[in-house]
Amino acid sequence: MFSLRTAVASLSLRSVAPIARVAFATPCKFVSPVVVQARGAARSSLLGDLSNVPSSYNKKIRRGRGPGSGKGKTSGRGTKGQKARSGKGIRVGFEGGQTPITRLFPKVGFHNVNTLDLAPLNLNRLQAWIQNGRIDGTQPITMKELLDSRCVHNVPGGVKLLGDGAEKFTIPITIYVSRASYSAIAAIERAGGKIYTVYHNRLGLRSLLKPHKFAERGLPKQAQPTRREMIEYYRNPKWRGFLANEEEGMKEYHALLALKGVEGKMQKAVEA
């Protein structure tokens, strides 16, 4: 009978040598235990073993299922009282009948519906933008150039020019803003520049900032201020209002707006 001892005895070193050479010459391949397990179970996919991370879902709380769960009997509501009953419960802010905190203290301040929401702009920031080449100081500067260059990030109702850095401002410019402080006006004119404060309603301001939106219907006519406070402000030469020196600087401004309207039409045509 053929046995293991007989098989081992029949092997010789001469017959084993070629097998050993082949075994050592062939590189070993590492087989992942997962692949071996998948092959052993005759599965072609591991999608059945996938699961969400623990933080991606919350475990449902089973209430009223015995004291061992921690949420049995009264289900975490305690004993009796309005909050232990079924139904909608008490409203937000109700404090049991005592004066709630929303009525305990007086109101502070008020909201003035006539206040203009102006974006502040200081002279030191404007000068830095011009020196860095982000704004062309040789051309008239409007609120569109300020917004496009990100010198101001938002123009809700206009731009007010302020005087921080007025003592170091040396660039002669021509600028059109909604309002300006007296120190900013003095600094610009001391440097040899010009400043005009111009009124824009919501439609006029939108047409100035986004002229390509008005390519088909054309730019609207510039609106005039209607409130007495604004009329007096823009008529006052102290604030360089456009109604005070309309002949001097507003012709150039209207020509500039017309040019921006033509550029808006060209931009609209390119986008189409």
UniProtKB/TrEMBL annotation:
Signal peptide extent: none
Protein name, entry field: Large ribosomal subunit protein uL15/eL18 domain-containing protein
Similarity-based family: Belongs to the universal ribosomal protein uL15 family.
InterPro entries per the UniProt record, alphabetical: Ribosomal_uL15 (IPR030878), Ribosomal_uL15/eL18 (IPR021131), Ribosomal_uL15/eL18_sf (IPR036227), Ribosomal_uL15_bac-type (IPR005749)
Domain Large ribosomal subunit protein uL15/eL18: 120-195
GO molecular function: structural constituent of ribosome
Sequence intervals crossing the membrane: none
Gene Ontology cellular component annotations, sorted alphabetically: mitochondrial large ribosomal subunit
Matches recorded under PANTHER family: 50S RIBOSOMAL PROTEIN L15 (PTHR12934), LARGE RIBOSOMAL SUBUNIT PROTEIN UL15M (PTHR12934:SF11)
Sorted UniProt keywords: Ribonucleoprotein, Ribosomal protein
Region (Disordered): 56-90
Domain of life (superkingdom): Eukaryota
Pfam families in alphabetical order: Ribosomal_L27A (PF00828)
Protein's UniProt keywords contain Ribosomal protein: yes
Gly residues bias (residue ranges): 66-79
Chain segments annotated as coiled-coil in the UniProt record: none
GO biological process entries: translation
